[in-house]
Structure formats: structure tokens, C-alpha cells
Amino acid sequence: MLPAAGAAAFLAAMRIHEGSSHGPFGIDYRLKAQDNNGIFSRSNQLGLEYGTVALEAAGALFLGNHKGLGHVFWQAADSSVFAGFAADALKYTFRRARPYQGQGPNAFFQGTDQSFPSGEVTLQASFVTPFILHYRHRYPWIWAAELLPVYDAYGRMKSQGHWQSDVIAGWLLGSAFGYWASQRKVPLLVEILPRGVSVGFVKDF
Known about the structure:
- The longest helix has 27 residues, at 68-94.
- Helix content is 57%, strand content 0%.
- It has 8 helices and no strands.
């Protein structure tokens, strides 16, 4: 988990900001200009989000929960689903205003606002963590998968959709659920869903 921690520290140390309010954690700064263009455009962020969900579902259903890659896909699905529930619960609890709303980083419990934590960063971290933990010794390059939450975290701040503490919290939340899911021999979704769902098309054909 060291690369995730290091990248989170980098985001926390950013000093590109407006105003002097640093939020309850002392690390929150709004980027100077809202930018939804280029590689960090909102459409690319959403494409990554939907693509991750589609890949996760396709990999789990196609390969099945037998061993190897298919099992890790089911662990990732476990991680993402339950991390998503946790992120939504925290959003509804804290109801933090987003940077573009101009209320500052201390604006918690603001109606229906849902800035804390970042659900999209939670998703990316929860998705990559089981793969990293499973394959890190065999394929050390798998740590490069942490670039997905890095990209998403910076993109969400660049478009002023989240504060630094939002994306760091999402990163930690997703990584924690990824670790939890990677320790289960039988993914919880496999236990809950009908048994045939986790067989996998590969085994049938």
C-alpha cells in the first residue's frame, strides 16, 4: 500500500489554491481554475468509471470464481460493491459542499451535497487493490495500476468536483475494502448471489 500512501501524501501537499481556508484536515485547496478539458475532461472521467464497472462485471461473469484471475475479479467486485455502499453512506452523512460551489472546504452538512468522500476514487482504489495484492510478487509492474486512482483523484480536483481530503478518503476507503476482499477465500457476493452466477462462461464452454 506504500505507493497509494505516497500518492495520497503528494495530493495532500499540493499548494495550488484560492483563499486561506484549508478545511478541517488542513490540506484542502481549490485548484485555481476549473478545467474540464483535455485528458482530465469529465467525459474521460466518466468513461473510466463506466469502463471499470463493465470490465469488473465482465471479468467476473466470464471467468468465474474458480481460481486465478477470475477469483480476483470476484474479489474486486466484492470490494467495489461494498466500498460503494460505504462511500454513499458517508456522503449522505457528511453532505459536504463541492469546491465549485464556492462555500469553502468547511461546508459540511449542506443539504444534499455529497463531496466527502470521492465515490469515483473509491471505485478505482477498490478495483485495483485486489489485483495488486494478488499479483504484486509475480508481476511487480502491477503497482502501476495505482495510476488509475491517481488520475481520477487529480481529475476530480481539477474539475473542482472534490477537495484533497475527499479523494484521499476515497482512496483509503477503496484500498481498505480491497484488502478486506482480498483476504476472503470465498467472495461475499459469491455467497449471496445464486451459485450459477459465479460459474463463468469459460468453464461452461
